[in-house]
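Let's do one together. I've listed all components of the complex below, 1049 residues spread over two lines.
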Amino acid sequence: MPKDHGIGAASKRREDVRFLTGTGNYTDDINLPRQLYVHFLRSDVAHGEIRHIDTGAAEAMPGVKRVFTGKDFEGVGGLPCGWQVTDRHGQPMQEPAHPVIAQGKVRYVGEILAAVVADSRERARDAAEAIEFDIAELPAVVDMKAALAPDAPKVHDDLDGNLCYDWGFVEENRETVDAAIREAAHVTTLELVNNRLVANPMEPRVAVGDYSRADDQSTLYTTSQNPHVIRLLMGAFVLGIPEHKLRVVAPDVGGGFGSKIFHYAEEAFCTFAARQLGRPVKWTSTRSEAFMSDAHGRDHVTKIELALDADNNFTALRTETHANMGAYLSTFAPSVPTWLHGTLMAGNYKTPNIYVNVKAVFTNTVPVDAYRGAGRPEATFQLERVIDKAARELGVDPIALRRQNFVTEFPYATPVAVEYDTGDYNATMDKLEEIADIKGFAARRKESEARGKLRGLGVNAYIEACGIAPSNLVGQLGARAGLYDAATVRVNATGSISVMVGAHSHGQGHETAFPQVISEMLGIGEDQVEIVHGDTSKIPFGMGTYGSRSLAVCGSAMVRATEKVVAKAKKIAAHLLEAAEADIELRDGKFTVAGTDKEVAWGDVTLAAYVPHNYPLEDVEPGLEETAFYDPANFTYPAGAYACEVEVDPETGKVTIERFAAADDFGNVINPMIVDGQVHGGLAQGIGQALLENCAYDENGQLVSASYMDYAMPRADDVPFYTVDHSCQTPCTHNPLGVKGCGEAGAIGSPPTIVNAVIDALHSGGHKVDHIDMPLTPSRVWAAMQG
Amino acid sequence: MYAFDFEKPTSLNEAVTALQTEEAMPLGGGQTLIPSLKQRLAAPSKLVSLRGVDEIRGICRDDAGRICIGGGTTHAEVAAGVPEYPALAALAANIGDPAVRNRGTIGGSLANNDPSACYPAAALASGATIVTNTREIAADDYFEGMFMTALEEGEIITEVRFPVPEKAHYEKFEQPASRFALVGVFVAKFADGVRVAVTGASEEGVFRWSEAEAALASDFTPEAVQGLSVPAEGMIGDLHGSPEYRAHLVGVMTRRAVAAAG
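Okay, and this is what the predicted structure of the assembly comes out as:
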């Protein structure tokens, strides 16, 4: 009998009432009295020297309050980078200045050249067209390898070339790995591209800056996944506003996928301009602006080599990756191709020798940063593609090759610095073989062939690191922030509870899932608990939501705070029941004295805490509210196995996904319906990357896929009905809920699965194609079949 | 958008008069023009909505048995309103999404002549007649290249007359992002011959593939066009497909259209 409440229940998402009835409160719904609007004039060239800007005519236009240029920000801080990577030689990465508005040069199409603040959007836009400027166009660098050529144009004149860093991991292993590859019985090599993506959340970014002279208080309403991070970065590094004078509010947010982690220029601008002008300043991104100003994702070019011994055991792995940073370092950009990628290169396998080299490169393109999975999809893609190629070269079953090399004993310390606490990769592969009906594939292939279609089966195994993560560890790795989280559990007088959390929900369903945990712990109804998030004036200092960390990190903080609440409530109950505290038990919303029928209800105890007439005031303070900060001991390691069956139309190259099965191990599951939804969404994004999405620049740095006319997002009929399962559960060993995180798995595990399936289909048709770079559009697949 | 005046006349004469203003533009369903305005890529002095002109909306038949579709008729209305011409109904039913089909009009599509639009293929393959407020134009004389037509400034498409073929089918290979035709082929078999029109493929916009027409005239089977191909030269090459790929798809889509037309 499935549970109807508490941990494990498929409680319906309470937030959907407002999301589905149009009563959400998004940042663009916020309009303040006397509000002004900003229009950003953005560079239409990828690289150029700003010779001259004349804003006089624009400032004389009707309704215009002021026009800002880079000059106005000369005394203001730049946008900070939150992670410093140290290179192979022990040197810090090259870190260019990142101005709010371009100064001296523009470095990508979309960079802010000037900002017009006016009393309406259209008037601001009219005036932006009246700004006279002269930009001397310079040659752009777009291709990463070309950018590293000695005579390449420099994106930043004050840096030493376009190399941000050359990272080796683990550098001490380099020679051992080289030797292992030299001595291997077989080496499989693959060169591949992890295609650049645009996150495309349904809600574009919005910022509203406000300033109250009466109390010198600045407020920023913004579409953010982590309001405290924005407050810290913008207050301390950009605008110099002390935290008690700066409030950041991220209300309902319509999807982030990583792109709303970062601190963006527009946020700083609106906050700054509101203070300058004494009036609120609002910016709402158009979809066109989003394409050229939201941080992009992925964009890796990799060569990977997998070495095997004569018995097909993996003996070594070596990768060389070029990672595109774009023109500036976005907030967490340097960490993505390094610590979120290199540390996962072991995958699910006990490969003893691994060396990862990453060259991060500046180009005249939009900055690149974390996007759903962030580094882990790139790692999984290379590894699972090269393993598939190795199986084909060696003539062995790809599932058997994977199983043979799986890590089976835990904890397992990888050669790339992380320790997997728990897992069972054979269990998820067993489950996958069952739910995907791998045995039935041959018959289905025959049926497809009878219809003139090529059918392929692709499998994969993946692991990821979630619940990012121990602050002391990430600090050693270069993070300029802690990565704990926080929760305050405020029990109200009549027993209902408000939980103020540092995590931020922008689609994850925290408002439903978090109360399930409290309900389970206290035995009260889920409807007695509300979750408050997204406002630095209401919540404790938490680090927000990304890297599938909300439940594993913030949920753990909530558990710890609730445990403190229970401990205190037991003292009160002991007093009310005239019993020893050690004998008090809490069950089904009642405190009882062990071995007796004496009991007091949860609500009577909470009332006593706020109306402390009969109360142990000498031992216990009134009130019932506790806060906990939780800093995890390790990452969590969700893992699983995916299978995909595709049909390829041999005449057109069109790929259709016929079946997709996912067997995931997320540890304990709080709400299986929400977990299903997270997996479905992740799979859709992975399918988008594998088959459709392609953020393309031309050689001049013009964004070719700058709208939905050319950038293909997955639609409902591009995705199949999924078979998902998360019944294989090895609970995380180091957090109180035993949870791992499920938000990114689908996007991590699916792209290689799909590409493996397409390559299998092509081979079944006699096309000896080793690899096709994503997205596997009809034209690319057709071209590959032409040889 | 830039500021513009707006008129919504209720008769064709009023619409024609309203369009006399310099830089005035007619507004059909707005499925291309409105996004262009929002991007500030168009700056008309005045928009003249044809939405209120009932006399150019609706579907009827003339004495010659042709289907006469008013220029202001939406794609959804065509999809539901031409049961005797299933290929045309299916084409209309597969343009864009429901919102597009309930706003976009046949006149707007043909006047715009997007090189990847579906309707130009139907009009050209059917040998339709484009009727305007001043004249009748044969489809063969109407399409003059990408976004170019025989229409004069201020001329309004009032009606499109489609002869109904014995057999026909439109086969569309969708561009993955826009879902416009990467290549679309409309094949129509009449008593006196076969017409094959190709959209999406050529830099010159919709065109007739006369070689295929000749082959199909004597043998209306996919095998008849099996060995035929169009040259890649002059085909569109972009992010979604090379000229070679488009040229290849012209052959594939033609064979499939013939097979489906039966």
